[in-house]
Please model this.
Amino acid sequence: QAQLVESGGGLVQTGGSLRLSCAASGFAFTTYGMGWFRQAPGKAREYVAGISVDGRTSLAGSVQGRFTISRDNAKNTVDLQMMNLKPEDTAMYYCARGYGLPTSYDSFVGWGQGTQVTVSS
Model:
């Protein structure tokens, strides 16, 4: 069955960087848009970024200019490069799959278990 496994989370200071990776298996990766969303304690799930099969990208306004999403269709992976991290970026980050270019949380049809990102002030 479809599986998405995230890695790369951790604790970082304000202004630091992290790179999240997601390994996909069990489905036709090159027919799905991919992306990331996050959820902080007590808050709703928040769309972060999406990327289509052909590499078109979408980013939430809150991460524009700081985060970059990329995918490797040969390796079935999707990455999220996060720079200039802020305490408000603290959340569980989930890799997700969807259709076309995912541009909202509702675009996603499946996701992994998540990886925790904590940004200290």
